[in-house]
Write a structure and sequence with these properties.
single chain, mainly alpha, two-stranded antiparallel ribbon, 2 strands, 43% helix, globular
């Protein structure tokens, strides 16, 4: 498990989604690992690019896991969100 990123003005993260996807952070942590996992990258991109308004869990489940039953989709979302929070 990775420690949480440092809080404060010295921490910076960049996400470039147009052209070649690039993820960088000022701590040179595991941000690049997200690029190799399409669902995690898609979820991060959706959350980062959407307006700062609440996104419902049901909407995320319908977008990213329409083929799964609700319990499995909720588990998948929780797992991806936990990994994003760690990275």
């Amino acid at each position: 498990m990775h420690p949480p990123p440092p809080a404060g003005p010295d921490y910076r993260a960049e996400l470039h989604l147009l052209g070649h996807c690039v993820i960088r952070s000022s701590t040179d942590d595991q941000a690049e690992a997200i690029l190799g996992q399409a669902k995690r990258l898609a979820l991060l991109a959706y959350l980062a690019a959407s307006p700062p308004a609440p996104r419902t869990r049901d909407r995320l489940l319908a977008l990213f896991w329409p083929e799964l039953d609700e319990a499995s989709a909720r588990h998948a979302l929780a797992a991806r969100a936990a990994r994003l929070a760690q990275d």
